[in-house]
Amino acid sequence: MKIVVTGGAGFIGSHVVDAYIAEGHEVIIIDSLWEEGGGRLKNVNPQARFYQLDIRSAEAVELIVRERPDILNHHAAQHSVKISTDKPRLDADVNVMGLLNLLEACVKAGTRKVIFAGSGASYGTVEHLPITEETPQRPESPYGITKMVTEHYLRYYQQAKGLSYTIFRYGNVYGPRQDPTGEAGVIAIFANRILQGLEVRIDWDGEQQKDYVYVGDVAAANVAALTGGDDDVFCIASGRGTSVNELYRQLCEIIGRSVNVVRAPRRPGDIYLSYFDCSKAKRVLGWQPRMKLRDGLQHVVDALKGVTP
Ligand SMILES: NC(=O)c1ccc[n+]([C@@H]2O[C@H](COP(=O)([O-])OP(=O)(O)OC[C@H]3O[C@@H](n4cnc5c(N)ncnc54)[C@H](O)[C@@H]3O)[C@@H](O)[C@H]2O)c1
């Protein structure tokens, strides 16, 4: 298939590109290498065609209309909760207007389907665990709001214009190439700092748990969606919570040293326990998370050390 991957120079998008190319697909990347994002030229698979373009641009539309891809895989986004609260208009411009620009292009190009990187952030604080596809979405940040709104536009375009979709709501994705200097991505941040012998900050009591899913497993879900899961939504995560203290402990064991831990108060919006039920993805897509946390953490450390698998 011919596939356009937006955000294909970024952390998750670049792994999706690699997985598509490994399956023999033709891949075109649209990525602006936005300075606040995790996109890097070195992440770009040399077998893909790379276009440094903004998803909001007329050039991006022209490219899609010219290339007529079978699939648009949409991973480009403004994905910082902090930037979204500081600059909600920027967040909406990239995440909503950018999406609409791409959807209009897909309709003109006769693209069959859009695969979309949604987020667990669209749920906000939930009343019942585990989180499933049926859990009500009550986003608590502009970022969570734009991720939820996107899902509604995808449903609209399917009904009104026949453009199919698969929506993935990811847990906390981790793995090689995640920006270790970003605001999020506790595993990359901790691993990088422990390797350098720098102190780490643990908020609250560190026992708060989130659901961490390995980026290779996420890429596999994106492969499954090429042929399955049409007009449907799936939670993609590991299915279990892991505490911040546990991540720190395991990374210290892998790296073979501990560092000074600075304790900090709870951050606004932090929740104590969050994990997903991913049985629908298993049932419909035949997908399940395969990477064991310990092995995934080892891959992160190896990548930061420059060890190739
Ligand atoms: N990392 C996670 O844990 C996580 C969790 C849930 C959802 N997501 C979603 O997955 C997607 C990828 O996230 P990531 O963690 O790989 O981030 P990332 O920053 O590494 O990748 C995003 C890419 O989008 C590009 N981009 C940003 N604005 C653009 C624009 N206007 N035009 C073209 N390209 C633009 C960036 O240059 C970057 O390469 C995002 O949509 C994000 O919201 C990520």
Provide a descriptive summary of the structure in words.
With 309 residues, the protein is α/β, with parallel strands linked by helices. The chain folds into two domains: 2-173 and 214-236, NAD(P)-binding Rossmann-like Domain (Rossmann fold, 3-Layer(aba) Sandwich), CATH 3.40.50.720; 175-210 and 239-305, Alpha-Beta Complex (UDP-galactose 4-epimerase, domain 1). Helices cover 39% and strands 17% of the residues. It is built from ten helices and 13 strands. The strands form four sheets. It has a seven-stranded parallel sheet, sandwiched between helices. The radius of gyration is 19 Å and the shape is globular. The mean pLDDT is 96. Bound molecules: nicotinamide-adenine-dinucleotide.
Kindly summarize this structure in a few lines.
The protein has helices at residues 11-22, 58-67, 81-86, 88-109, 142-161, 186-195, 215-224, 244-255, 279-285, 293-305, and strands spanning 2-6, 26-30, 49-51, 71-74, 113-119, 164-170, 172-174, 200-203, 209-210, 212-214, 232-236, 242-243, 261-264. The chain has 309 residues and is an alpha/beta fold. α6 packs across α10 (293-305).
Write the element-wise H/E pattern from the N-terminal end onward: EHEEHEHHEHEEHEEEHEEHEHH
What's the CATH H-level homologous superfamily of the largest domain? NAD(P)-binding Rossmann-like Domain
> Tally the helices: what do you get?
10
Strand line-up of the largest beta sheet: 3-2-1-4-5-6-11
* CATH architecture descriptor of the largest domain: 3-Layer(aba) Sandwich
Number of domains: 2
Instruction: Specify the CATH class of the largest domain.
Output: Alpha Beta
Binned strand content: 15-25%
Radius of gyration: 19 Å
Residue share in helix? 25-40%
Name the ligand types. nicotinamide-adenine-dinucleotide
Distance between the amino and carboxyl termini: 28 Å
Q: List low-confidence stretches.
A: none
* Named CATH topology of the largest domain: Rossmann fold
Number of strands: 13
What profile does the largest beta sheet have?
Answer: 7 strands, parallel
